[in-house]
Amino acid sequence: MLKERAARERRMTVINGILLVVIIIVVLQLWLLTASMNAYLGGDVAIALPAALASLFCLALNVGLLRYLRQRK
């Protein structure tokens, strides 16, 4: 019983850590969207493609982490 409880606590620590990383990546994506839109509306059109690629990379990271969490369930 004690071993099961310790294993559950370790799993919850990992899950909480993954969810924290997901939240940080989402905030980073929001910042990236804001900064890129500000630059684009200011006339810097060269920033649009790199910002979109970085955002897609963040999306792929989040999808991968969330799929990992669903599999662990």
Give the helices and strands as they follow along the chain. HH
The percent range for helix content is: over 70%
Uncertain parts: none
What percent of residues are in strands?
under 5%
Principal-axis shape: elongated
Mean pLDDT level: 93
- The total count of helices amounts to 2
Q: Based on DSSP secondary structure assignment, what is the total number of beta strands? A: 0
Class derived from helix and strand content:
mainly alpha
CA-atom Rg in angstroms: 18 Å
The number of distinct structural domains comes to 1
Separation, N- and C-terminal Cα atoms: 20 Å
* Sheet of most strands: none
Describe the model.
By secondary structure, the chain is mostly helical. It has helices at residues 2-41, 48-72. It has one domain (2-72). It is 89% helix and 0% strand. The longest helix is centred in the N-terminal third of the chain and has 40 residues, at 2-41. The two termini are 20 Å apart.
Q: Which helices and strands, and how do they pair?
A:
Blueprint: H1 2-41, H2 48-72
Helix pairs in contact: 1-2
